[in-house]
Amino acid sequence: MRSRIRSRRSRLIIGSWILLLAISPGANTIAQTPQGQVRNSVNPNRVIYTPTNGQTIYLDRCALCHQPDGKGKTDGSNGFPPLTGLSEWMSLREGQLYVAHAIIYGPYWGDVLVGDQYYFGMMPRFGPRFTNEQIVAVIRYVAEELNTPLPGYKPITVQLVEEARRLPDTMDAVREERSMLPFR
Ligand code: HEC
């Protein structure tokens, strides 16, 4: 008797799920969209931080780890890589794309080698929390204020950030992109 009630209830639950999937608008598109695209997209509910000035964003959201002067931090057990020494990457389209992907993707952790130093800290996922314009602003601050732009430098565009959002949402992809860049 009990088990019959239970099975009737579970049939009801399964039935209402099917109904929900069938009637809710967009449910099918979400199911068909590769997971990365949904997770990487800006989420209007999570953009609760509104500043658009690159320096403000950097000091509020990046300096805790990368330090206000961008020199990073090596003491302690993990460490955060410097964001200085990036002039060459910032003058390359692939370099800008990787940096945007590193900010969008997360949690980004593992071993990042800069010079002869490995960094093992963790960087949170900023993709859903920042608009493309905010990502442009903070990358421009890194490129133009923490580093010295090389001749021929072109500021990153909203289009390139959007392109970075569509890159595969895996750490392997981020690492692969980094490994193709000149050693820094
Ligand atoms: C909680 C600490 C933390 C915060 C906050 C943080 N980062 Fe990071 N960031 C890291 C760590 C750690 C790495 C290296 C990832 C690894 O070890 O795999 C990293 C890597 C990077 C890289 C790639 C460097 C390289 O050599 O490949 C860039 C670019 C970067 N961060 C930019 C930013 C920007 C811009 C912000 C602010 C929007 C930011 N980070 C906020 C910890 C942080």
TrEMBL record:
Protein name per its UniProtKB record: Cytochrome c domain-containing protein
GO terms of molecular function: electron transfer activity; heme binding; metal ion binding
PROSITE patterns in the cross-refs: CYTC
Species of origin: Hydrocarboniphaga effusa AP103
Entries under InterPro entries matching the protein: Cyt_c-like_dom, Cyt_c-like_dom_sf, Cytochrome_c-type_DH
Keyword annotations: Heme, Iron, Metal-binding, Signal
Database matches in Gene3D superfamilies: Cytochrome c-like domain
Residues of the signal peptide: 1-27
Domain Cytochrome c: 49-146
Keyword Hydrolase annotated: no
Coiled-coil regions listed: none
